[in-house]
Write a structure and sequence with these properties.
Two copies of one chain form a homodimer. Chain A is α/β, with parallel strands linked by helices. Helices cover about 40% and strands about 15% of the residues of chain A. Chain A has twelve helices and twelve strands. In chain A, β3, α7 and β4 (about 145-150) form a beta-alpha-beta unit. The first copy, chain A, is elongated and about 90 Å long. β2 of chain A pairs antiparallel with β2 of chain B, so a sheet runs across the interface. The structure holds a DNA duplex (16 and 16 nucleotides).
Chain lengths: ~350, ~350
DNA sequence: CTGAAAGCGCTTACAG
DNA sequence: CTGAAAGCGCTTACAG
């Protein structure tokens, strides 16, 4: 009757001459099974190579042992690190990971979220782009614990864990000002990206506070290397050149660096340069890049831990937004310039 | 009766005043439903925000719309790229992705494979380290289509897709010899890693063929940067220094480069250097690194496509091992040296 | 075109 | 400590 090769709990029960209920109890470690019976069941299961069918188990137990991760993309350092942190915790707590990328398409994101019903016990959601109000509420399966990662939601009732982009950006400006720079340009990230907006806000606030006589000097960018390169070319060509450039992320800082190299503008001698993220490349370029380290793996790990704790406790997740601090990494690109003057 | 917030197919049936069978048919696009009934069901489902329960659906339909990916790790460029290629195909074909890393622990790998029963429709498996004979057969859920990715199995009956490491390594040696190098050292990868062994084999064979009078010059390594650095220091200290170094992967080539830089050995003027993989860093270091590009995303995408085709066709996967060719990328680190002699 | 019913493979009160 | 039975939420022959 059973399809060849597929052995079910019934087969084990028949072989061990007990009921399926007893097999289930024995295999799940319940204590209301006689020890000799348990041994027999375990041995039989092993002999038949029985493996419980996950869908069946999920359906009746209402647990999937799986966490869903819905994110914009799987490409690149950031997501790789994030997944790594999530994975470490998942393994330690014996959870599976269902990943789903939506590549910036809100419809796909909504679909991905809805499709999680019956697949996962909880959800980690990244939505770095501005969301329609009610988007999550509309699409999240009811009753599924969620932790938002690096995702800003107005008036949200969701638990969230985010990088302290604002604090990191102000700290970077403080560092540059401390190194003697007075004209600090900023290369922005995408306008609809929350991380980018927070970093810009930090730049502006710190600048207004530390150098109240200076005008902010902002160049457009989109987090990609190419946009940093463009910004770099514009800076090189500008008449009143800044003495420091703070890029909203490392990739743009690198693009900017190429533009400087091309133009023979020396870093840090002619101009200081700083990024944000501390991608591995930052230590390898010449000069090495000053940046603000974001421990992405820790971000993922902490979010996962918080989510699993809620799942295990069958608890409501408290709403507060927790924050992950960043760390200033000073490298060659912002070394105090050997100036003629000042 | 139903837990608050969770709406099932029964609720939709009741609201639409049809049977659950009809709701199921309408929602799944079967054609044996009157058009007006279908409309009513669809509207009702939407109004109630009904979302099918994946586990229940899987249990009765025997389809999960999910592919499992079991790999040694989720860390780093290789897996990031691989997953990216897999994900692109998964999205296009509306499949979910269940990822599982086993971090080199065979027991965990076996567990991960077994736990896939009832969770996935097919499996992509990476096992770059030498496996016990029968390991996969022992642990793979019966009847689940599998494609092995970059995994060598003796006498395997599984479909597989692998990088042509051997061909890539011979091509690299040909390039170095063509550039005039006569004493070419090789930094090995881990002894139990199949990619590494194939690259070593390619190095040896090409050397024997092109420079039959030369002895191979092999240094130990483990694919990590640090081991490349150690090898580089040994090369610098050696009395009869090679004129080219071929590292079994880029990370070791970079480590080697640091050792050379430290010692004041210039690349490519004093010694040529080449790696394997074409990681992003290879374009960014100075000098830029000659390497053998492996299109990892394509590897993942092709494996996924092959697997899904088999799942869709309900087909047995044919066993042949397919191969992905590599591409020689010549950069500064192997430019023809400006020698005094020769 | 539609519904009642069986069944997917488990878990878990309920009785004993 | 154990088993019979209900139930998880679907899909799908089977009848009509």
């Amino acid at each position: 009757m059973a399809r060849s090769g597929t052995v079910t709990i019934k087969d084990v029960a028949r072989e061990a001459e007990v009921s399926v209920a007893t097999v289930s109890r024995a295999l799940n470690g319940h204590d209301n099974v006689a020890e000799n019976v348990r041994q027999l069941v375990l041995a039989t299961a092993q002999r038949l190579r029985y493996q419980p069918h996950a869908a069946a188990r999920s359906l009746s137990s209402r647990r999937t042992q799986t966490i869903g991760v819905v994110l914009p993309d799987l490409y690149g350092e950031f997501f790789s690190e994030l997944i790594r942190g999530i994975d470490a915790v998942a393994r330690a707590r014996r959870q599976h990971l269902l990943v789903s990328s939506y590549h910036g398409h809100p419809e796909e994101q909504g679909e991905a979220l809805r499709a999680m019903r019956g697949r996962v016990d909880g959800l980690l959601v990244l939505s770095p782009y501005a969301d329609q109000p009610g988007f999550l509420t509309d699409n999240l399966p009811a009753g599924l614990p969620v932790v938002l990662v690096n995702t800003q939601l107005p008036d949200s009732d969701y638990a969230a864990l985010s990088v302290d982009n604002y604090g990191g950006a102000t700290a970077m400006v403080e560092h540059l000002v401390g190194a003697g720079h007075r004209r600090i340009a900023f290369i922005c990230g995408p306008k609809d990206n929350f991380d980018a907006r927070e970093r810009l806000r930090g730049y502006r606030d710190a600048l207004a506070r530390l150098l109240p006589d200076t005008q902010p000097l902002e160049l457009p960018g989109d987090f990609d290397e190419a946009s940093g390169y463009e910004a770099g070319k514009r800076i090189v060509a500008s008449k009143h050149r800044p003495d420091a450039v703070f890029a909203a992320n490392d990739m743009m800082a690198l693009g900017c660096l190429y533009a400087f190299n091309e133009a023979g503008v020396r870093v840090p001698d002619d101009i200081a340069l700083a990024g944000f993220d501390d991608i591995p490349l930052a230590r390898f370029v010449h000069p090495t890049l000053t940046t603000m380290r974001v421990n992405i793996a820790e971000l993922g790990g902490r979010a996962m831990t918080r989510l699993l704790d809620a799942v295990d406790a069958n608890d409501e997740l408290a709403a507060p937004v927790q924050t992950l601090t960043t760390e200033l990494i000073v490298r060659q690109s912002s070394e105090r310039p050997r100036r003629g003057s000042g």
